[in-house]
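MODEL INPUT / OUTPUT PAIR
PAIR INDEX: 1
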Amino acid sequence: MATPSHHQNPTPSTKKKKTHKNPEANFLYELNSCSKSKDLKAAISLYDSALSNNTRLNQSHFNTLLYLCSTFATDPDSKDLALRYGFRVFDHMMALNIHPNEASITSIARLSAAKGDGDYAFEMVKKLGDYQVSPRLRTYEPALFCFCQKLEAEKAYEVEEDIDKMGLSLEEPQIAALLKLSADTWRGERVYNYLHKLRRSVRWVSEETCKVLEDWFCCKASEIGSDVGSVKEAILRNGGGWHGLGWIGEGKWVVKKGNVEPNGRCCCCGEQLDCVDIDDVETEKFALSVAGLALEREVKANFREFQDWLEKNADYEAIVDGANIGLYQQNFAEGGFSVLQLDAVIKEMYTRSGNKWPLVILHNKRVRALLENPSHRKLVEEWMANGVLYTTPHGSNDDWYWLYATVKLRCLLVTNDEMRDHIFELLGSSFFLKWKERHQVRYTFLKGALKLQMPPAYSIVIQESEKGSWHVPIVCESDEESLRSWLCITRPGGCEDEGKTGSTMETCEIVNVLCCKSSENRNNEKCDDKTTSMTGKRKERSP
């Protein structure tokens, strides 16, 4: 009879107990624990023990140690220890011919900057190319911030140029640092350029960046100013909200903090803010992108016919997505295509645009069905007689037609379509959200009554006016835009309400100016919350 074997297969738990990590794995595990608990001294002790035991070290070991050292390099109590061991660890890594990666270089750059050596930090970043590794924005930050702090302007600008060459984009912290550096070294033209970089990069600024701007305009910009021609044309060409031609006007700046009314009027200076559009170049690129994609997906002859027709009929101020409106809330048993809903939108847009008919894009199959219905025929024929309808051919996608028409004619688009699929496909869609905000009109029907949500009266972005003033939105925790503070920066006499409230430049005091005050003051200072009924085309909008 067979006897039971004493060499049975071990259970999973038995396997686990018999498995021992090698020294290198144990070292990394313990190092990672130190990294998680932010225990620099324990990590250094482990490193010294590993050296004593001749533990074979790899890139992960060195990177974890470098990261911990760089983290403590700005801590006054641990700085000396972090710097001493940080550079020692890096030298050891290089001596073993272990190639650094982006994380390694970022850590050693941070250590160098903490020591005040921006040159070495930048030198390390440039050496990444030797290892076929691309730097990230964080890799450049230590050198950039170090040069900015030490007011070494030319070196900081060199770092910025290298960032640009690598195809990386500056974010608010880096732009604010360069702006402050330029202000502190009296480089007014640079300040102006960084203000525009800030405008392109963020919708609103942090409190820290706001303070940098206040300091510049209050104390250091009083001698800058010159008149520039063709400002209005530049603003229109750029889509509103900025001209980019340099400082406008002369004299000291007046700096205030205040709110903006729902209609876009600044409560500090009375100036009307713009609803900012994409510029002429972006618009043309956008139109070409839409047309190119449409010609790939549609029958070319059909879409080209529409393009030609649009060239001859370019006076429309609003495009209507007919299918989107006609099928709105029709998902019930008796639901179908609502001609009454579409007609309500057509008539409302006609009234708002000063008796100009909108263009409705609708598939020919849908139009044919409506004409065959006796109860709808007369209304549809009326639309056709007024030049309201463009019927898209069999097999076409309406979306390409109404999107192209809106972009090409730079007019409004009535639809609730979020156009997410278009964002995914379109080239250069980084400006798509700005375009949508400026052009899309949303709608609802409450108990059969139409309510349109027009584009906002103004854009919550940094704005530069024709008069040379600046309006800068500041970060706000509330979702209520009326509570957002703005930095209002003007020159004396530049705006209609200038001088009513606020501080003079000699004091550099920033005074908050509110639109809507306590109830007892509202009779004297009303907030007009009535927004513009019809935005219209850009060419007819005042900058």
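PAIR INDEX: 2
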Amino acid sequence: MAIPRRRHQHHHSRVRFLFPAIFAVSAIILFLFLFLSILAPSPNDDYHLRHLRRDDSSGGKGGGNEIKVPSSRVKVSAGVHNRDLWSSKNSKFFYGCSNASSKFAKAKTITHPNRYLLIVTSGGLNQQRTGITDAVVAARILNATLVVPKLDKTSFWKDSSDFSDIFDVDWFIKHLTTDVTIIKDLPLRRGQLWTPHRMRVPRKCSDRCYINRVLPVLMKRHAVQISKFDYRLANKLDTDLQKLRCRVNYHALKFADPILKMGEKLVQRMRMSSKHYIALHLRFEPDMLAFSGCYYGGGDKERTELGKIRRRWKTLHNSNPEKARRQGRCPLTPEEVGLMLRALGYGEDVHIYVASGEVYGGEETLAPLKALFPNFYSKDTIASKEELEPFSTYSSRMAALDFIVCDESDVFVTNNNGNMAKILAGRRRYFGHKPTIRPNAKKLNRVFLNRNNMTTEEFSSRVHTFQRGFMGDPKEVRPGRGEFHENPSTCICEDAEAEKEMDWDHRKSGKDNVAKKKDGDDRKKDIEAVVHDENVDYEPEMTDPEDEEEDEDNPLGEVSLGSSKAEALSNGTSTDYDSSMSEDTELDELLSD
């Protein structure tokens, strides 16, 4: 009996030590679980910054349908990359050059009498600016006298301003005297007012298109008015015509004195508070969001409100928010813009001027951006109501004030690729490649979605990588790519003597030049890949809902005159025109269009 008793005692001893061991292991597991829970990010951080997607289990009904942008918990730093925040690398080696060549004849020698071109612009301030610029070039192509363009007064923007209310008309005429003859009004005909023939041309109409389509009508009617004149001239023209575009856009179009003086006051006030400032064209208004077809987490209320606005554009298809965001066609939220800038190295002490209309979601939407950049200004905060009163009821004049402050800023940030963004990007390239940041929304979307799974340094590094080619540096966009107004490569010259001094990212010196050549080549490929990813080719342009026409390559049917005959017509030297084209048939058919 002794043996069974010993076995029982041995078993009891093993059980007695087993319970403390189990307890110890359990305590360790519990401790590890608590430790990991502390390190793990809050679920509230994953609010789709991204899509600002919230729990839609309620169907978006009831309270809380306003856009809500919680404060981000992502830490931001002064940046991890060694770059000058306030200037573009190698910009000192590039300069704007738009002088005419010796072969470009003076206007008085090529302008034909009794040829008058009138145009009516379309859209808001910057869309009209492109129309005015192209109208001067069109008049030059036609060897015609240009009547000072009429501004759009009937479209969505509803602005009654005349040309002279926005621009210095006398400067405009005088500065272009040697290039194109410009007059303020159509002269009397036999002592009486006369009505010009009205017609339209397709978008991206080439110089040959104008000679074939407009010139025959102009020769018969003597005065032609082209309506809805926006982007009615081809992007690619010969060098002298492109340089004329630059002389008009960057030198002849000067704002009227009242606008210029008020704009300068705003710039001075921004400079008084800080040596440098960023200008942000936020473009987060309801119409822009509706046009983009994107969704920002506001439930049924947002879908209803933006859907109603979107229906103004009858040609827009049903939106696919997920696809639009993947393709980079959704404007960043104000917080996303702020996070991008902080990742690029701009600290919370930086002063920001925001050019924007009514922000969808109001102050609640702006709150996260203001938290990231407390020094937050707009024309309404740095100017009194009395100062803005002469401009406040005119959308184009208010837009002109924002244009001036953005143009003079040390860094310009655009949140879309609309007309103002394109015009300012081209202008800032021409005048010294001042930093112009356009978010690479297609790539940044992925970074914002996954930012809580990466460190601060990783987040900043990713933003830097994907923003290469989107910062306004020289040669980041290939010549001829995008709209000419955005990338006026023909008008930007390079200091050839300084080529060897340029500090490109992949260029090293001394022993590092050999050791890091491969890394430099890989980096260059990475930059080229990102630049190739630019979304300028498929991002739609927001247009006036009342101006929806179907612009085909040649919707009216182009009259072909042959290259030699077209050139003769343009120069006014054709002697057999009447025998080659009957005025009673083909011309009348053109006029009926």
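PAIR 2 NOTE: The two ends are 121 Å apart (CA to CA).
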